[in-house]
Amino acid sequence: MHFRARVFALTLLCLAFCGATARADLQVGFAEREITPDISKPVYIAGYGQNRVATGVHDPLYARAVVLDDGERKIALVCVDLVGLQLPEVRRIRAELQGFAYVMVSSTHNHEGPDVIGIWGPSPVTSGVDQKYLTQVVTTCAATVQDAVERLAPADAYFGTAKDHSLLRDSRQPVVYDDVTRVLRFNKPGTQEPLGILVQINNHPESLGSDNTQITADFPHATVAALKKKYHCPVAYFTGTVGGLMSNPPEIPGPDGKPMHDENFEYAEYYGRQFAKIAAQAVDDATLTELTPFAVAAKTITAPLENPGYQMARKIGVLPRAGRVWTGDFETVGDLAADDTPADKLAIETEIACLRLGELHVACIPGEIYPELVYGQYQDPVDPGADYPDAPLEPYVMQTLPGEKKMLIGLANDEIGYIIPRRQWDHVPPFAYGRDKSQYGEINSCGSDIAPILMKALENRVRELK
Ligand SMILES: [Zn+2]
Predict the structure, then answer these.
(1) Distance between CA 464 and CA 466 in Å, rounded?
(2) Beta 62-69 vs 74-80: how paired, if at all?
(3) 107 CA distance to ligand 1 centroid (A)?
(4) Which of 273, 292, 337, 353 could join 364 via S-S bond, C-beta 3.0 to 4.6 A?
């Protein structure tokens, strides 16, 4: 069956039966496998500029899987220490797996791992992707999910949060953070013995910076290691809201109180351990949460691909991803784009999903969402220098997701770049905040329609869950 049809059928099935079944006991399984590239041949590191060739491996990269089973259906949540696996690869992973109501694959957005998108190769016109490596990642992700299935065991689930922005920097005005670390802790039933922890942090893993040539998972490596050591259980790190742009401060107080500067491994290790402390607060404060039954609403949607840089990269094969003909309706996927499809009719295909896991709702967002779109903290009054000051405000994620317990996974099933509130889109002069040039962001976004489309599409998925 065509993938799109299959997701639709699954959605219908879930909608028909999820609410009707009696509560079954939750089972969970964790697994991890290495996806460190072989650097005996050139490996182009993703993030920042082109032609950053790996010279060593500081710490291994992993694919990690958390499989959840409500007695009726299984959901797999996969994360990889990569810059952003895209939808075509996620579909290949799904094709290797049977019997899942949903498989979600997200990337930590690591800026110190191999290029898996194409734009960080030896030159701007040559892809940095090693297709053999990409296939290896696909196979390994599927195998990791199978490992997690074999480890399925009954569990009690706890959901917790910790709010703290002392380790965050917002590098683009207006200053709005997503400073809430969210965790799911799974215990052996009726005990305090942890079976595994899923941690979701809102930050760009880029503490090593653009001069590093050692393959590393960046600070999440240290966060995961510290949490594993503290709780003696598997830990899976997922990314959340990273747009806007959530990043590390260039300087933090070090262990001796003296300033510590970024772009080195000492900083990355220390910074990662500090984030583990925040996550540990969330783990320790987590409260018993009913995670069954599951319901899934997922859909392939399209959005106009306005970005001329992305269009050019497609044309020259650096971003070889297939395009679609824009239908004017994001819920209706058009025909495959041809070489002569006009630029203003070109659309990108992506996926948006909402999972209901008992009391918890999880938004699966296919890129780098700005915190403004998560909390509705839009610039007010709007800056008259912005390109669309009168654009309607998008419905925001925390308003759209029902209930009290919510989570957002970023770069979920795709990496389509920045998701910028339309009122903040600022590509042409005059520029907002009296600047003489645009802030960084638009250059790495599909276009100004992407935020309104995704936020509306998320609303539609939540409606399907009811
Ligand atoms: Zn980014």
Answers:
(1) 5
(2) antiparallel
(3) 11
(4) 353
CA 267 to ligand 1 centroid distance, Å? 20
Tokens representing residue 131 in the block: 């297709």
Rounded to the nearest whole angstrom, what is the distance from the C-alpha of residue 410 to the centroid of ligand 1? 11
- Structure token digits, residue 15: 């909608």
Q: How far apart are CA 417 and CA 279, in angstroms?
A: 26
Alpha carbon of 167 to ligand 1 centroid (Å): 17
Report how far ligand 1's centroid is from the alpha carbon of 206 (Å). 9
* 14-48 pLDDT per residue, tens: 444 444 434 458 999 999 999 999 999 999 999 99
Which residue type does 255 have? P
Task: Tell how far the Cα of 443 is from the centroid of ligand 1, in angstroms.
Answer: 11
For the chain, domain boundaries: 294-465
Q: Determine the pLDDT at residue 14.
A: 45
Length of the chain: 466
CA of 177 to the centre of ligand 1 (A): 15
Ligand 1: distance of its center to the CA of 84 in Å? Answer: 9
- How many Å apart are CA 201 and CA 109, to the nearest integer? 11
Distance 450 CA to ligand 1 centre (A): 16
Residue 420 has pLDDT above 70, yes or no: yes
> What does the pLDDT look like over 337-352, one tens digit per residue?
999 999 999 999 999 9
In the predicted structure, residue 6 carries a pLDDT above the cut 70: no
**For residues 112-136, b (16+ Cβ closer than 10 Å) or e, as one string?**
bbbbbbbbbbeeeeebbbbeebbee
Measure 424 CA to ligand 1 centroid, in angstroms. Answer: 17
Residue appearing with tokens 């460190």: 36
Residue 11 CA to ligand 1 center (angstroms) comes to: 30
Q: How confident is the model at residue 380 (pLDDT cuts 50, 70, 90)?
A: confident
pLDDT of residue 32: 98
